[in-house]
Write a structure and sequence with these properties.
The structure is a homodimer. Chain A is globular. Chain A is built from 8 helices and 8 strands, in the order αααααββααβββββαβ. Chain A is α+β, with helices and mostly antiparallel strands. In chain A, the strands form 3 sheets. The first copy, chain A, has a 4-stranded antiparallel β-sheet with strand order 4-3-7-8, with no helix packed on it. Chain A has a two-stranded antiparallel ribbon with strand order 1-2. Chains A and B meet through α1, α2, α3, α7 and β6 of A and α1, α2, α3, α7 and β6 of B.
Chain lengths: ~180, ~180
Amino acid sequence: MALGKDYAHQQCSIARALEVVGERWTLLVVRDAFYGVRRYNDFLVHLGIPRAVLATRLQSLTEAGIMEKRRYQESPPREEYVLTDSGKALWPVVCTLGGWGRNHLPSTRPTRLFLHAACGTELNAYGTCPACSVPVPPEDIEMRPGDGFDRNTDNPVSRALLAPRRLLMPLEVDRV
Amino acid sequence: MALGKDYAHQQCSIARALEVVGERWTLLVVRDAFYGVRRYNDFLVHLGIPRAVLATRLQSLTEAGIMEKRRYQESPPREEYVLTDSGKALWPVVCTLGGWGRNHLPSTRPTRLFLHAACGTELNAYGTCPACSVPVPPEDIEMRPGDGFDRNTDNPVSRALLAPRRLLMPLEVDRV
């Protein structure tokens, strides 16, 4: 369902942002990119997303300047998708959305914890560090599995996410 | 497109939050509720949303415990929709999304400014006050029209939003 074309919708920055990222899969692709997922197949395996939908979402994210495609191997040519600066700036949105889900949806045990790496304090619902009173950029965040994380998962990407890690660091997936 | 049903999707708090609010109209209805819009017709007029879509979104927001229906007049019976505490907790999501749109989408002049009412400082991209270093709840935010706001709008809800106002205060729409 497209939004209306009148002035109020086009100019409001919230409405315009939703035009670009207001779709569940889109923000889940962005979330995975913060977790360090970069390769098409890893997104596919981790999200359980239909191939055609993933391809379309990666293309629109690239066109919108949120992700960029980078050649990481020449022969055979292989590409990965990484967040641009504009994409990294979506962190507060992803973070606050997760905080709301954790605190306001029934029976969600946290699958992941987000800590200010400098002091080890868990971020609050605004994505800021309550101990240091600073907004924490994704580079300074350590992610760890929480109580709700299924440690017996056989999803190779989920398994790679079992170890504590900095956000945005490329994820090494053990492909057995 | 429904998300997959496997564990990773159902348990991640970001994915679960997107199941509930990950649709453009849904978050725009929530945004309008923060602006003080409460009545079905005001949502309709301000959003330019098809009637059937608005009715469905209000119903699912009510079922999800994000909004509640309140009788404000007995004869004839009239109801309004207001944010619950769980709904008000979505403020950081709406706020960070708007901040991203303002800073990272081309040529968006701000239609609305969000200030910490206590000190008059504009909120940062995390929805916190840079002067006071505190996350600011919606009750403590003053909203004012920005440079990009069309002051000549003939939309009655947009006109009502021309005056500076606290978030969540019921909006009085001049119905001429």
